[in-house]
Amino acid sequence: MTTPSAAANRAQDSTVFEVAARVGYVVLGLLHLLIGVIAISIATGSGGDSADQSGALEKVAQVPAGVVLLWVIVVGLAALAVWQIAEAIVEQDPDAKKRWAHRAKFVGTAVAYAAIAFTALTVALGGRSSSSQSSQTMSAQLLSSPAGVVLLVVIGLGVAAVGVAFVVRGFTKAFEKHMSIPGGAAGRGIRTFGMVGYIAKGVAVGVAGVLFVVAALKHDPSTAGGLDAALRSLAGLPFGQVVLWLVGAGLVVYGLFCFARARYAHM
User: Fold this and answer.
1) Torsion on CA atoms 114, 164, 254, 134, rounded to nearest 10
2) Which of 29, 42, 226, 242 has the fewest CB atoms within 10 Å around its CB?
């Protein structure tokens, strides 16, 4: 039999964990703000930092009390990862296909959060981590193995599909289902930020996926550089600096949306 004190303790633990998970959304917002600012600096010709999670975390480490903030990032993202796993476990959509699709999405998101948390932990402990180098190393290892080209193409198509999903989520405003968005001007602003932010992030992630496919077809692992390489490749397109500036600004907007998500997301 559950005692009132035990129930109260569980409720308190749940509240603490929810707060930690909401802090995770604030952390995501901060990281996307920094990535967006780095991307804009690259577009204007003044950027030398990596426009990805590693570059953003290196920026955090350089500010006063940066190590403390890095540990907050680790805890917040770890809490978000665990929360997504819990969502996958309790998912009860009556349609079996949708139920497993939702579970796969939750698990994939949890893995992404955990990976960024691990990168933050590495930086907090004084190490260095390069997302671009990791992507190139993984690509090289795959290309040196049997069926490596096929596997890398599959990974690239999967990443590109995630990018397309972000774009679709932005256009359809599907993120609204997971939030209690207020009415009035604040609600309209959050919806606009969500739409612009999701589309910008989708473009960046989609290009990263395409680069994995190109690396496989050219048998050149140096082409696969993750988000940083994807954003820098945009600068090489016609009107690329303008495109990169817009995507960078969109990532800043996505960061601001994450702050609103921390407040209004269903938890």
Assistant:
1) 40
2) 242
3 state DSSP class of 265: strand
Which residues are 179's β-sheet partners?
265
Instruction: Give me the numbers of helices (H) and strands (E) for the chain, helices first please.
Output: 9, 0
Q: What is the pLDDT of residues 55-93, one digit of tens each?
A: 777 777 787 777 888 888 888 888 888 888 888 887 777
Check if the beta carbon of residue 167 is closer than 8 Å to that of residue 198. yes
Contacts of 117 (CB under 8 A, 6+ apart): 73, 74, 77, 78, 81
Measure the CA–CA gap between 267 and 254, rounded to whole angstroms: 20
| CA–CA separation, 57 and 119 (whole Å) | 8
Residues 6+ positions from 57 with CB-CB distance below 8 Å: 31, 70, 73, 119, 120, 123, 129
Collapsed DSSP state (helix, strand, coil) of residue 258: helix
Return d(Cα 53, Cα 47) in angstroms, integer.
15
In the DSSP assignment, the letter for residue 129 is -
Q: Encode pLDDT of 120-141 as tens digits.
A: 888 888 776 666 666 666 677 7
Kindly calculate the radius of gyration of the chain based on its CA atoms and give it in whole angstroms.
Answer: 19
